[in-house]
Amino acid sequence: MExxxxxxxxxxxxxxxxxxVLSTLLPVxxxxxxxxxxxxxxxxAKGIEQLNWKSPGIVEFIEQAMEDVQEVxxxxxxxxxxxxxxxxxxxxxxSEPMMMRKPRPxxxxxxxxxxxxxxxxxxTIIKEGGKAIQLCMKETLKTLKVxxxxxxxxxYRSEERRVGKECRSRW
Length: 171
Hints:
Elements: H1 2-24, H2 30-49, H3 58-94, H4 108-144, H5 151-168
């Protein structure tokens, strides 16, 4: 009886993880994760169609299902975490203008002098943020194990660029 409870507990956990991944993936992310979802679904189909509680190999089936769903969850978490980091970087950029304006009119030379250091600091922040964004994209690509010329990867990058443009439009 205790063994049965452990198995059902693990299967509930597997189901919860799978459902969480499916409900949190963005439409542009799903095609990138689809091969991993298909692998998981193929393994689960065996349990649905062929196995019962008394079948030999039920323990191995549950363990493999847990590994498969954990892989999918880890990939989805990496995608979402990197996307969050990119959005935070973009939000940081948008939090301050590229130049400071005085409330009163000033001479161009004074304006240039006042903004030179500020622009330099902002430019450095943006360059560093750009490097961080590139690292996030490289990590995501490596995690997904897809080609950088894949149509799905290009769609994902386009979506990230769209979000970036939206953020820049608020500057």
